[in-house]
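REVIEWER CHECKLIST
Item 1: Sequence provided? yes
Item 2: Single chain? yes
Item 3: Sequence as submitted:
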Amino acid sequence: MRQFINLDEAYRDTYKQIVLHPIRAMANLYDMYYAVAMNHKLAEEKDLKANYWADYANECFARDTEYTKDYNLNISSGKWNHMMDQIHIGYKSWEEPKGGNIKPSVYRVKREEAKTGGYIFEEKNGVVAIEAEHFYENRASSKTKWTVIPDLGRTLSGIALMPYTEKTDGTSIAYQFKLKDKPFSVKVHLFFDSTLPFKKGGHSIKAYLDKNATKTIDINQDLTWANNYSKMYPAAAARLVEKVEIFTLPANQNGNYTLTIEPLDPGIVLYKVVIDNDGYEETYLKMDESPYKR
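Item 4: Structure as written out by the authors:
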């Protein structure tokens, strides 16, 4: 758009015809169909995020109409009116739809029908990578709730027990996964938000695959106001704290395991969990999420 604004007035109509309109119209169509696909997938899973994608798909459909109108009426003072009238959304066969473009069907999930949790992940290439919001089950007190924070972190979101003013006693979040073989132990990578230790002594969690072998993990004791920018720079979503622990796997689990995390302090935000069965690779996004079922 900056290039368009900086163009001499004499070239703007030509630029819009052969460059701007084809690119933005095609990108918008891609966004629309992607939103529709996400909506259908999440609606089938009874996930409330289906509603976001339904709204976005509708926005894209409306935007397509505006782009068409802009081309027909505003380029060269309407010289090419009706040039973009060809129907291009809603084909089910070679014959064009009757009555104009057909808005794709989207579905909505009612809050009372929404399903949470139940994710079971499968190992792929020696690793199980799990986005924090895709838990198997969680426990909260009567005054707290596990809350997803969209777009926080490097990939999908963060999840935290809220509000931070309440105690974390009796709360937990669990992740279930399957391993193809039965190793003696696995290395677990836990990725947290770089919360400053506003609690004296810092923040901690308990984590276990077998409750008889629980580990207490300190998250941010080495962060201070003084070293925050030098230690965690650059800012915003790039900041995270990675903790790596080796867990012995419980016996007789038939390859099915549950990692349970208990926050010992408020203010802990979890981004991602990665179970390394000798397949972990260091990447900026900390591995793509593994396949799962619900």
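Item 5: Key structural point noted by reviewer: The helical segments are 2-6, 9-44, 49-74, 228-232.
Item 6: Recommendation: ____
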